[in-house]
Amino acid sequence: MKNPWIIIGVVTVALFAGAFYLAGQAQEQNNVGIELKTQVKGNPDAEVVLTKYSDFQCPACQAVAPFAAELVEQYPDQLRFEYKHFPLEQIHPFALAAAMAAEAAGQQDQFYAYHDLLFENLNEWSSSAAPAAFFTRYAEELELDMDQFRRQSNASALRDKVRADFAEGRALGVGGTPTFFLNGEPMKAANGDNLPFSEIMLRVARAIDPEAAATAELESEDTAVVGEVEGTPVRFGI
Fold first, then answer.
1. pLDDT in tens, 167-194
2. Strand order in the sheet with 39-42
3. Range of the domain at 151
4. CA distance 14 to 100
5. Is cis: bond before 178, omega within 30 of 0?
6. For residue 223, what is the DSSP state?
7. Number of domains in the chain
8. 8-state DSSP, 154
9. CATH code of 182's domain
10. More confident: 113 or 24
11. What is the torsion angle, in degrees rounded to the nearest 10, for the CA atoms of residue 224, residue 227, residue 232 and residue 233?
């Protein structure tokens, strides 16, 4: 009679091999049709490029998102805005899953619409024990192909893309979010702190139209707050 432990061992190995095979088959199916691309807003061929490394579970990223959208609206033909993922998984446990869900929406050309829903509802999904249910609901609101969304939001190819963005950011010196680069130059102050977004907006304006930006700066410098009327600052030319 054969040793029963040998039989149990053979069966166990076979079960593990079968499980790994099925998992591999599922991942291959999830990756079907995936197109890896940088998520761009504005003019993809613009010479001025503003890149944001961001985390969907980051409140500071949420706060600055509307200002970045305003820039694209202001310069739709002159600015290329790029969103890069930098999920801080140690402090934001759902950031990677949120990024993958947004990328899955992006496979149906709805990355930025989904991006907006994630930030608008940050407190809702980030405080949940099961954020995947919210991710599904946001996809339904956008009327995405739900079979495709569910499959691709678990795709290893999109997970690898998000982590590749993170590695790229690390190599560029990104340490937190949000971090911006303008034409490859980090938007940092001399002390290493991130520049306020008002300064980033000014630098974008300078890069797009130096003369117009210089005129606007002079006009701003030629005014001073001299008082308030019902709480509203009153400015007069100097």
1. 999 999 999 999 999 999 999 998 889 9
2. 39-42, 79-85, 48-54, 179-182, 185-186
3. 39-186
4. 32
5. yes
6. E
7. 1
8. T
9. 3.40.30.10
10. 113
11. 10
Closest CA to 157 of 33, 54, 53: 33
Residue 226 sits at φ, ψ, to 5 deg, of -115, -5
3-state SS assignment for residue 72: helix
Within a domain: 135? yes
Q: Is the pLDDT of residue 24 over 80?
A: no
Query: Is residue 152 domain-resident?
Result: yes
Q: Establish if 70 belongs to a structural domain.
A: yes
Query: What pLDDT shows up at residue 92?
Result: 98
Q: What separation in angstroms does the CA of 99 have from each of 53, 103, 154?
A: 12, 6, 11
Which residues on adjacent β-strands are paired with residue 180?
A: 52
The residue type found at 85 is H
How many whole angstroms separate alpha carbon 208 and alpha carbon 205?
A: 5
Closest residue by Cα to residue 98 from 132, 143, 68, 140: 132
Say how many C-beta atoms besides its own lie within 10 A of residue 110's C-beta: 20
Structure token digits, residue 4: 């029963």
Decide if 48 is inside a domain. yes
Residues whose CB falls within 8 Å of the CB of residue 93, separated by 6 or more in sequence, listed in order? 57
- Structure tokens, 120: 């608008």
Enter the tokens of residue 191: 């002390």
Bridge partners (DSSP) listed for residue 228:
233
Tokens of 204: 């974008």
Query: Which of 207, 210, 199, 213 minimizes the C-alpha distance to 183?
Result: 207
Choose among 112, 118, 49, 123: nearest CA to 80: 49
